[in-house]
Amino acid sequence: MTENLDLAFLVHINLQEENLEVDDKLRTSKFPVFSQQLPVVRLQDTRNPMFSICFEYGCHARNEIQTSATMESRKRQLTSLDSQIPETKRLKEEIKENVDDEDSNDSFENFCTTATKNPSEKKISPRARSQRITLEELDDDDSFDAPICSKPLPVFTKSTKLESGVDGFPCLFDEDNVIYLTVKVVDKREEGCLDLECVDKNGKTRLVYLQDRWSQLDIEVGNTINLIAPEKWGDDDYIANDTKGVVILNPNALVPCTAVASSLFCSRKVILNDKFKFGNASNKAMLLGTIMHEIFQTAITSKKRPLVEDNLLQIWNTQAPKYAEELVALSFTPSCLDVELKPYFSIICDWINKHYPLSNSFFAKREPLPSKSELLEVYDIEENIWDSKLGLKGKVDVTMRTKSKKGMESLELKTGKSNSSSEHSGQVLLYCMMQSSRYEQPIGFGNILYLKDGISRCVTPRAAELSGILQQRNMLSVFFEDPTISRLPPPRQESRFCDKCDHKVMCSFYQRAEENYGKSSKALKEFAENEMAHLDQTHIDYVSKWIRWISAEWKCERDRMQTQNKDLWLKTIPERVEEGTCMQELTPISEEMSNSQRIVISFSRKSSSNPSPFRPGDVCLLSNKKNVAIAFTVIDHVSDEIIRVTSDKIVKLRYEAPFHLDKNRLRSVLVDLLPPNIVDTSGFNISPAVKKIIVKAKLNNEQRRAIIHALSTEDYMIVEGLPGSGKTTLISVLIQCLLATNKKVLLTAFTHSAVDNILGKLTKEVSPEMILRLGSSSTIKEEIRKMTLKAKLESESSDNYYASVRRVMKTSVLENPVVACTCHHVPRELLFSYRHFDVVIVDEASMVLEPLLLPVLATSRKFVLVGDCKQLTPLVVSRKAKQEGAEVSTMEKLQKAHSNVVVSLTSQYRMNREISMLSSKLFYENRLLCGNEAVSRSSLDRTGDYSVPEGLDEHIRKTLSGYISDSCIFLDTQSSLNHSMQCNDEDGGGMSNDGEAKIISELCKRFIQCGVKPSEIGVMSAYRKQVDHIKNVVQNDTLEVNTIDSYQGREKRVIIWSLTWTDNSSKKSELLRDERRINVAITRARQKIVVVGCKKSAESIPVLYRFSQMLTNNLTIPH
Questions:
Q1: Mean pLDDT taken over the chain
Q2: Domains of the chain from N-terminus onward
Q3: Is residue 910 pLDDT above 70, yes or no?
């Protein structure tokens, strides 16, 4: 996903032959830590990803009850026909390929052989015992980056016979062959058959009888299935067995083809990798493979023939800048890289010149592919295919149009030595089926080229293998469909395969803590116990706790999503347009390459009264009318006439950051809560340079004390900074002091704005050359972008780009004393796999969920947490997880455990005394104090630029009053008497209030007329829907309207707060019941806060009742 998921939501663009549509298809969560598939930080060796936990939450209960009346009735009708039902036949096709890899071969061959074996002959019996299973329906949430398909899809004419191209296997492009069903009753028969009562799209009941391999499916009530060309029985029922029909379980869960293929070796590893995204450690083999793929793909699409090695070297020199950081990080010198690349160049040139010479002369005759077909055209590179019919998704290395009856063929590139791996064959078989479905052609051949030795081979589809690999996909879909990790496939029983596995610790944890070794052999149990020997029961309980909490959170996150990927094929374009998630009737204008190596595509749109639902930065899914997911792009520009998107073709490598320094110490601090080493600061020697910095900054006594504690700590310290107490200034000064003592500093925060605000202050005293800001330029303030790696590289001028890169990488990445980024960026940044810091500073630490904080803290032995636990906490949706403590941040946990490491900043320099008093009394036991008299007396009327006109109504005059006594105003809308002021519950959980929006629009105009600049006015609401509505009503781009949560750490001269919710709503206002959110809302204003809402409704909420009782200025809006 993108780096800043809290604002972006996934958009979908449909390209038709003449017109295009754009479609918002999957709102990414405001809580990135839950919306992404989260990697793992191991407790043993604390690795790159966001957090270290494996997740399981409950099992599905199964209760045996009687079969439904519908199924019993239908079976009675069939009893007399029992003898007529066709018997299943044994398929005798076997895998004929010799496999060099013994283990891989056994896995695939045994699987396919087992799948084709026919149990004892059986017939449908209406009297069989049944078992009903209930299960909540699950949805899938996937995303990936993808390149643009540069050509329109070819149009194939369907043959009248619609043959599949493979004997014994159904046609995949005949839509009449596919029946989409939802399972209502599952009847598991004693003799091995599986009977289902289902409902089709039209609500009609269908009975489905599954035999042979399909009877082994783990189907539960609520699952969906696609039946492809089953045998029809009567008018309404179907039979699927080894000789007739294919069953796709959970077709809306698009399982990656690579995952299906890899599962032939170890299904458990595939699921762990999907949930935790370990990835391999940084290695040259991975980088070399990626480079060779791109060189081959660029070479085969070039017009140079015959290809020679110098041509490939020229291609590589053009591509090298993309991999600059990885090359330097892995110590790849140019000479070393040339040695590694050279053996591949001759093989690539030879293969392309033989099979794709681009000439019609006799001497340039094309040799046939391994499939015996002739390559006519390279149709696409890295083609993305999402197939909801087969429940698969994948990226084909090279899509080739061939001179054969079967049309398109795939070429899969492998950088290793040739072998007949079942995983490789299985992956290509899946591509063959997806291409048949997409291009409406018979199932064709697939080709594999091994770049290491130049061997290429053909993969020939056979019915038994196609059904077998689809059955493997069905098995995996059960786990991919589950948003949590409530169960895992059984592990491989041979422990000799496990030692080098990235997931061995998490797999071992599951065997011990969740499965009690019930699925493990003796040897595997011994291996798992050895892997877990370094953890005691306290650590096991810690992991189990987060398993429970994050699993619950993932499930809640799935349930609250209004749209899902499956809507792309289950809903029509007009339906999505009606929902406000689709923009249609777009026509492509241009496509060009930007300087940053991104493709920029512009579309014209028909004028519409409806505003665009998309904003710059939103992630978009590009599709054509028939096929989904041609590419993922990003909205770059939106206007009434034009929409522009960009796509990044650069392959982004995932690197694991092995945070291996002081792992045990970090575990003892966070899990065991051992006390930190306390240093007596009374005798701490401060250097003259540090003294000079502190004096120049004019810090108060609390801030000075915090600086001394941070410099002297041996483990960690906590700064509790109350609202407006100068936390940003403190952190800036602390970094200056650390630099004066030659320390390397990592600065992180929960939000980009917090990081940039600190850097803005820091660069007034420290040269930007000493700072490296990591992150996407689009999420970084413009004045800070000069500190990014991209800007530093662009400022270099040299003929030798690689030398320039090495110089910048050495000075910026390896030696810059200050590195700054958000907490979310640390797990996926290559830099942190090889760089260690003396101190880590975390701003907004009270907002960071502990699993997200782990990889940040693992980059240094010392850390400083700065925040306020009485303001916003980590966002947790699951009520159960929240009640059990998931929203307790690391900062709050350590603050309660060891209060002696906490330094509080209670003097604030933001709010006048009237506003400060509200927060101080409500939330801080009167500890929040004004820092000086000027702050205390600050008000609108004392600035000289503010004037309220004469002759206004009393409630308007009082609302606009600049006197300090009128700093806090409650405008009561009396919604029970004035129905236009009542809130509107939106479908999907949104809430808006048109009456309040109109009042706020008028107030903004009045304040501006009185002398307040639009940029000094802040409008807020707890509800995103109300924020969007107010923006449409106010129509002033210079005036900020945002959620309360987005205003965290911000301040404005005037704040107008829309409560939005009224008690006519059927929903409880959970957002307004959070005292910490109310504290944030109150403490954003410097001189004036106006609350607009229904007082009676507000006083039904305890914290708002106390708030309203403290206000002396409660005004009523006349009706």
A1: 79
A2: 10-29+562-648 (2.40.30), 85-483 (no CATH), 495-560 (no CATH), 663-905 (3.40.50.300), 915-1116 (3.40.50.300)
A3: yes
